[in-house]
Each structure stands twice: as structure tokens, then as C-alpha cells.
Amino acid sequence: MLNFTVGPVMSNEEVLAIGGEQVPYFRTQEFSNIMLENEALMKEFLNASQEAKAVFITGSGTASMEAVVMNVFTSDDKLLVIDGGSFGHRFTQICDIHKILYTAIKLQQGHTVTAEMLQEYEGKGYTGLLVNIHETSTGVHYDSQMLGDFCKRNNMLFVIDAISSFLADMLDMQAVNADVIITGSQKVLACAPGISIIVLGEKALKRVHENETITMYLDLKDALKNAERGQTPFTPAVGILRQINARLRQIKRDGGAASEIAKIKAQAEDFRSKIKDLPFEIVSESMSNALTPLHPTTASAYDIFLELKDNYGIWICPNGGDMKETIFRVGHFGAQTTEDNDTLITAFKDLQAKGII
Ligand SMILES: *Cc1c(COP(=O)(O)O)cnc(C)c1O
Fold it and tell me: Would you list which residues are annotated within the binding site for substrate?
């Protein structure tokens, strides 16, 4: 299987080997040391402040999105949510469920949010902004510095879901004034799905400690208290946390976040340079290095996904909803190489020769 989806993606040998090992008991100093190292490396790779804390939630990315909304905000808040696709829309659904007031900035498919669009929200008493910095459903990558400056000017908490962008695009938590950054195990970390990570800066931590506890499993006060000694309140996905440790250490060994980002950027640029003669249009105003969203001009996007999966053993990423027939996505992260790009391009050309695209 050659997997170009947006997660779960292909893991490297070291991570795969851990998946095949027995899962150890975790209330030990050995496991605490792994968790403390995971926290330190997450903070390092995001350039988080010294006071920032990282917690590891057993649950996919959405669990951490919901945990952040539940623990950082209350019904006294008034949020702005960038709704540029299905992940942005998810934040509005979470706010609805938890009765947090918000205004959604709805974007046209494939379009970014601009400073001009934000002007009407200046000085209007908003207390926080929620954004999926790379809206994975459409492949649009927003400007974190511009959004961070807006939040700083308006004294708003800045929450970034960087689940598919962490380690694919530059993200400096302090430089962009982010208060919360969320990511997950199955995207660029390229481990098994099941763990999501929340990094909280000082202002967000203060909120968590002041707010009333309204959830047991996703209570960040409890998670933070346990994290001080490298532990979690409940049994975590121990095996995945060990995989994450191996990945974070590898990345550190290979030069840190910047070199991982450069690797994914090169993988994306290689793919984009090779599709020029194919009947595909890129459908995003500003792309992440993580993936390329493509509109096939001569065939159904979903049919191409099925053809590649069933006849070539290659998985690209289909889209859902009203983009199902018009857009597919090609991810550039996980244990893939430029030779893998060549294999995919050859398959596309074969589909072309057969008259399928
Ligand atoms: C993958 C992803 C998520 C999380 O989805 P889960 O299925 O809950 O892991 C959230 N936001 C973005 C931007 C994503 O790419």
C-alpha cells in the first residue's frame, strides 16, 4: 500500500516496530520520563514559552478541539471562528453544543481569510479566535501571523488547530502570539491515530485553572496536574505515546522542526512540479506543504480515488460532501519519498493512457 492520504499515513520502521511490541504498564518512572521528554520536545518544536505546558489526550484531534473549547472558554466569551471547510465548521458545532457564543467567518471554498475581512470585527468585544491554520478539507493554509496580530490588538485568546500543519509548515507559537496549539498523532507525526496534543501558553493556562470543571475525561486541570510528573489521569494510549517519543527524538536528531518542515516542503514541491502535464487544477489560494488539493478537469475525483485504490494499491485522499466528485487531495507527509511520487505520477499517466482521466 502506498498511502498519500492525510492521516493515518505511512509510519517509518522504528515507529512500526513499536506498534508490534507489548504495551508496558505505565505508572512507572520510565514512562513518566518518556512523557516529560515528549512535552519538552513538543514545546521546543513549536517554540512555546518556558511557562507553556503540553498535555496528551487519548482521543483523536477532535477530542482536543473540544477539550480546548470546554476548558478555556465559558458562556461569558464571544468567539470568532474561521469556518473555511469541514474542520472550521467542526469548531462551530463544538461551540453550539457547549453554548459558547461565536460569530463564524464563512469562507468560500479554496479561499483564505484576509486582513480586510477581519476589519469589521476589530474592537467589537470578541474574546477569542478559533482557527484550523491549515483547513485540511480544502487545503487552504491561513496566515498565522496576521491572525495573531489581530488577536493581540484585540486582546483575544488565539487558538490554533494545527493538527495537519504542525511539522509541515513553520509555526512559532511565541512569534504569532498563539495561546493554544493542537495537533494529533496520525498526521505529520505519522504514528497510529489515537493521541492528540494540546500546548497551552500562560494566558490559556490561567483560564483553565480559573474555569469551573465541566467534564471529567477531558478535564485539562486534572491532565495538567498529572503532567507535572509525566503522567495522565487515566490509562493513555501508551503504545502510541511511545511511538510519538521515537518520532520526536528522530526529528530532533535530524535537525529539529525546521528540517522536518523542509523535508515535507521538498516532497510537496517535487509532486507539484511533476503534475504540470496532467489534467488537474490546484484549487487553493494558499497551500500548506502538507497536501495538494486538486480538481480533475476530465473525470470524477472520487472515481480516480477508487481506480488508484482498487487497481494500483495507491491511496490518495477523497473529499466528502459537495467536494466528493470535484476534488481529491494528495498528502505529502508520512514515510514517503520522491520515488513514491514517481509511482503515483506513473499511475496517473496510466489512467490517462486508458482514457479514464
Ligand atoms: C485531521 C484533523 C482534525 C482531527 O480529526 P480527527 O479525526 O478527530 O483526528 C482536526 N482538524 C484538522 C485541521 C485536521 O486536519
Answer: 329
Q: Is 177 in the pocket of ligand 1 (CB under 6 A)?
A: no
For the domain made up of 13-253, give the CATH fold: Aspartate Aminotransferase; domain 2 (3.40.640)
The verdict on whether omega for the bond into residue 296 sits within 30 degrees of 0, i.e. cis, is: no
Question: What is the residue with the minimal CA distance to atom 6 of ligand 1?
Answer: 61
Q: Can you give the pTM of this predicted structure?
A: 0.98
What fold does the segment set 256-353 form as a domain? Aspartate Aminotransferase, domain 1 (3.90.1150)
Ligand 1 in contact with 60 (CB < 6 A)?
Answer: yes
From the CB of residue 107, how many other CB atoms can be counted at a distance below 10 Å? Answer: 21
Per-residue pLDDT of the chain (357 residues; tens, 9 = 90+): 899 999 999 999 999 999 999 999 999 999 999 999 999 999 999 999 999 999 999 999 999 999 999 999 999 999 999 999 999 999 999 999 999 999 999 999 999 999 999 999 999 999 999 999 999 999 999 999 999 999 999 999 999 999 999 999 999 999 999 999 999 999 999 999 999 999 999 999 999 999 999 999 999 999 999 999 999 999 999 999 999 999 999 999 999 999 999 999 999 999 999 999 999 999 999 999 999 999 999 999 999 999 999 999 999 999 999 999 999 999 999 999 999 999 999 999 999 999 999
CB-based contact 101:92 (threshold 8 Å): no
Q: Which three cell numbers stand for residue 222?
A: 486534572
